[in-house]
Design brief:
single chain, 148 residues, mainly beta, 60s Ribosomal Protein L30, Chain: A, seven-stranded antiparallel sheet, 1 helix, globular
């Protein structure tokens, strides 16, 4: 993985065989990210796990092990109360027949490359489990002493 930051914009490249979430955590740590937005992600995966929320207690996941083009990755990065990174990412993919599909991005392995742009933000983001869905919902907090 390589990454550089200028003016709160991080550009990173992941290489074949790298686990996406392990590398995203390393990038966030390296650049002292508190909260951010993945504004772009393109490349190709050899393995991916996608999710789809149907209802509370019913979250479907699907694992695919074939080359898939990453059309885009987008979502929010924040830190939880344990100071660990939380990712809420969605992804659009296409197969060799140019059929596009996507979902909640759970896990992935780079097969060729992954190029990612992350915008750091000073917005205080917290996540809490919501009773109705059982999902971790986004809540915005006061920024009084929030620092990058």
């Amino acid at each position: 993985m390589q990454s550089q930051e200028v003016n709160n914009l991080i550009i990173a490249r992941l290489f074949p065989g790298e686990n996406v979430f392990e590398q995203l955590k390393a990038i966030c740590s390296k650049h002292n990210l508190i909260a951010g937005v993945i504004v772009s992600g393109v490349g190709q995966f050899g393995f991916i796990e996608l999710g789809f929320f149907k209802e509370k207690g019913n979250y479907m996941s699907q694992k695919l092990e074939s080359p898939l083009e990453v059309l885009n990755i987008a979502g929010i990065i924040s830190k939880n109360e344990k100071k660990e990174y939380d990712f809420h990412l969605h992804i659009a993919l296409s197969d060799e027949n140019k059929k596009a599909f996507g979902g909640h991005f759970i896990n992935g392995m780079v097969s060729i490359t992954l190029e990612v742009a992350i915008l750091k933000t000073g917005i205080a983001i917290k996540r809490r489990t919501e009773e109705e869905t059982g999902l971790s919902g986004l809540f915005l907090e006061q920024n009084s002493n929030f620092k990058f």
